[in-house]
Design a protein that fits this description.
about 375 residues; alpha+beta; six-stranded antiparallel sheet; five-stranded mixed sheet; 11 helices
């Protein structure tokens, strides 16, 4: 391939990566673009799962062998079978000696009839002649690999192909890094930094999604609003670091209790206020989870338990046309639980129905209702 064709292929790959809407789409475009640029019959992009010690295939592209699918659910291999992926982020491998910064190591070629290795055996087993493997390095760390192979009867890859694959891998890594950074920004935008739970924005968006327009009335939407009791006393007596520990511990407890409700969202609304949003489970299941939360909160070593209010479209609370309405009902129930020092949750529609609709909120809680 001429230098001009090489340049065209690199530009095409960069453009395709730039407009990919998601990380899986970016991986798919990296595989397809590299396969076409290198004249391969098959390509794959894999990611190194460091915690699991596995090389996980994100996408397969081109002529698939039996058992291969375009987007595998769990196609992975022990990373110790492919030590070069780990070595690519060690000093001395692709490392600039003047700066000690790890750069992308060069790609290499393997053949079906070459030295015994896991890759050579896989090539032979799947009827392929040779492959070129290019590590993907993001921010100086090995992230995964780009793999392109040719089928039986095709010409074997040469050293020049490996050099070009190194360039393509650099372009692909830059595109993947952009998606990784965007994913991190999105995660931070919807995450409470202290507890790691969702934040108010995450709750508002989820409520708008399930209640903001036409919906299936048979799908129950429930909201548990919690107020941690005694936070001010903990702050005054032990300091704000202790208060933060109380909030973190309660956040962990909320997450564990929410695990009993599939698909629920545990979040911190702000200050000492938390919530659990469940879509689907019956109201009684949500109330049971809230009751367990109240019981376990009392067992925390600091604090004075929690006041809990529940509002669910599965209860007689009238037509709920917005997330704000459900939030006001749950908040009103939580206020009643706090005022009564209730040991368990107060449930809108079972014990109160109209408190949130009162023309004036309770005198001791006007600031809270104004904020809602």
């Amino acid at each position: 391939m001429s230098d001009e064709l090489h340049l065209d292929a690199v530009v095409a790959l960069a453009q395709a990566m730039a407009v990919a809407p998601t990380l899986p789409a970016a991986a798919a475009r990296a595989a397809a673009g590299a396969r076409r640029a290198l004249g391969g019959d098959f390509a794959a992009v894999s990611r190194w799962d460091r915690a699991g010690g596995r090389l996980r295939v994100l996408v397969n592209d081109g002529d698939l062998a039996p058992g291969e699918v375009p987007f595998p659910v769990d196609e992975s291999y022990p990373v110790h079978d492919f030590p070069e992926i780990t070595e690519s982020s060690q000093p001395g491998s692709g490392c600039d000696s003047s700066t000690s910064v790890v750069s992308a190591p060069p790609a290499w070629v393997e053949h079906a009839g070459g030295a015994a290795s896991d890759r050579s055996a896989a090539l032979h087993r799947r009827g392929r002649t040779s492959c070129v493997v290019a590590p993907l390095v993001l921010d100086g760390r090995a992230w995964g690999e780009l793999y392109v192979a040719r089928g039986a009867g095709g010409a074997e890859f040469a050293h020049a192909d490996a050099e070009f694959a190194t360039v393509l891998a650099g372009v692909a890594a830059a595109g993947i890094a952009q998606h990784e950074r965007l994913a991190e920004v999105r995660r931070l935008a919807f995450t409470d930094p202290l507890t790691g739970l969702g934040n108010r924005r995450a709750v508002d968006e989820r409520l708008a999604e399930v209640l903001g327009g036409p919906r299936d009335e048979s799908v129950v939407v429930s909201l548990v609003v919690c107020d941690v009791n005694g936070l001010k006393g903990v702050n005054d007596r032990y300091g704000h670091a202790a208060g933060d520990r109380l909030l973190e511990r309660f956040g962990s407890l909320l997450s564990r209790c929410g695990a009993a409700l599939p698909g629920s969202l545990a979040a911190r609304l702000g200050g000492d206020e938390f919530c659990l949003l469940a879509v689907g489970p019956p109201a009684d299941e949500v109330v049971r989870a809230a009751a367990e939360l109240c019981a376990r909160a009392v067992e925390l070593t600091i604090g004075e338990g929690v006041a809990c209010g529940v509002a669910s479209t599965g209860d007689p609370i009238g037509r709920v046309r917005s997330g704000r309405r459900l939030l006001r009902l749950a908040d009103a129930a939580q206020y009643r639980a706090k005022a009564a020092r209730a040991a368990g949750p107060v449930v809108a529609g079972r014990e109160i129905a109209a408190l949130a609709d009162a023309p004036r909120p309770p005198s001791g809680d006007r600031r809270r209702f104004r904020r809602r």
